[in-house]
Each structure stands twice: as structure tokens, then as C-alpha cells.
Fold this sequence. Notes:
The protein folds into two domains: 2-57, no CATH class; 84-313, MetI-like (MetI-like fold, Orthogonal Bundle), CATH 1.10.3720. It is 72% helix and 0% strand. The protein has helices at 2-12, 19-24, 28-57, 77-83, 86-118, 124-132, 139-149, 156-164, 179-203, 208-216, 221-249, 253-258, 270-279, 284-313. Helix 5 (86-118) packs across helix 9 (179-203) and helix 11 (221-249) runs antiparallel to helix 14.
Amino acid sequence: MKNDNNFVEKIANNTPVNIAHKIRGVSDKTLAWLFISPTIFLLLAINIFPLFWTIYLSFTNYRANRPGRIVHWIGTRNYERILGSSDIWGYLQATAHFVVWTMLLQVLIGLTLAMLINSNFKTSNFWTTVILIPMMLSPAVVGVFWTYLFQPQTGIFSNIINLFVDVGPLNMIGSVKLAPWAIIIVDTWMWTPYIILLCLAGLRSVPQSLYEAAEVDRANAFQKFIYITLPKIMPFLMLALLFRGIENFKMFDMVVELTSGGPGSTTELASISLKRAAFELWKTGYSSAYAVILFVTIFGLGSIYVKALNKVKS
């Protein structure tokens, strides 16, 4: 009874009390582990186990449509087939073309629009809201929406192009040369707002005193951008490029709805060819090796990029 009274007096006097020890009979550290252990277990079950299971299957001839079939260990044969396939390298080349051009266009357009919005003209808030709308849509919905816009006879895109250059009906998604650019245009339209948001955050974090000091030194607008604005927002730009590069490397739903990988295999990205191998041809072991190769590629490039990002931040 006396101990309970002392405990109440400590609380009334705002004296620090180890609640976990007094009530539960355990330390704060143990109590913390009890709270976070279910989350850790869930993450291991959802992420780590499937990863190791995929790595195991990549060394076998397992097929998901024949679960009762005896699984044989075939070593690195799946990896050799993938790395020696000219088709796979073609899909990776199409993916690289898509990733590089979307990142380049999104950064150029996003940074330009962010600087324009940051100038705080009269209707800047309205246009900021309008510009952000594409990012809020589902990629599959965007793919279907732009399929109609790209129709050669009735599509708005073809009519707009013909206002400037008379090329007749323009079949963007049916042309071998134009289809890759069609998915680049759509992805740029959809995700440039994301770059704008991060660039705006960077621009508004730059102290105005730096620009005032530059004006005293008679620096022009270009010099202010090169020596003040660009270095200050570079970490934001690089972070945006990291996220968009990873997402574009995994791009699937928007491209499937827009071109289905066609015409032929012109826009068949690595993610689409992986899906075909896994769920159309049911080559589960082969597709598992394919997935591991893509994972290692993205992880390796991401790690190198993060090191460069850390150097920029420092």
C-alpha cells in the first residue's frame, strides 16, 4: 500500500516514472520490442520469404500450372538462357530507352514549370492544382484514356499535330517508330507533376538572402540559376529521379493498356515480357530468374545512385 502511495505521489509531482516497469513488470526496451515484433514478422513474411523463394525457384524448372510435377534443380541454366537471349536484351533496350527519355523530359519540363509557378503570378495556385491532376489518376485509366486520344481518325492528338504540320491521320500507337514515343509522352504527362512538387519544395527552401547577395554582386538571372538555384535543388531533383527511375523500370499497367507491348514487341518492356513468361507461358523457374536479374539490376543501379546522392547532399 505504501509503494502504491509513493507511485501516485511521483505522478502528482511530475516525477519521471518507469510506467512499463511499475505496471507490466518489464523494461521499456522489452515493451518496445513487443510492439514492433509483429510488424517485423509481417515484413519478413511478406517481403523476405517471397524473395528467397523466388531465388530458389530460379534454379529449378518449376512450372506453376503443373504443381504436382517433380521439380528438378537445374543450376544456372535459366540465367544462361536469359542472358544469352537476344529478345531479352531487346526488351531491356526498350526499357532503357523509355526510362532515360521519360526522366530527361520530366526533369526539364518539371523544373521549368516549377520555376514558373514559384514566381507567384496571379493564378499560380489555380494552375498548380490543374497541373497536379494527372498524377492523381490510375496508370491503367490513363492508358485507356490516351488510347482514345491517339486514335488516328478521331483522336485529339492527331488533330492537334495536323494544325501545325499536315501529316494526315497519325497512328501513334500503331507505328513501330512512334509507339515508343507514345508511351514516353503519356508517362511524361502523368508524372511531370511529381517532379514539379519536389522542385517546388527545393525552390522554396532556398534562402532569399542568397539572391539578394547575388544582386548586390550584379549577378544576372542565369548566374543565379547556375550558382544558387541549381545546387540548392539538386538533392531534390536527384531524389525525384531516383523514385521515377525505379518506378519507370517497373512500368507495366499503363503500357499494357496503351499498346500491350506492340506493335510487335516494340514497346514490350522488361516487366511486360516477365509477365508473359510467368503467367502466359507458365515458365515459373525461368521467370523467377528473370525477376532476380531485374531486381539485381535495379538494386545495383539504385545503390550507385544513392551514393552519388549522398555526395551531393554533403
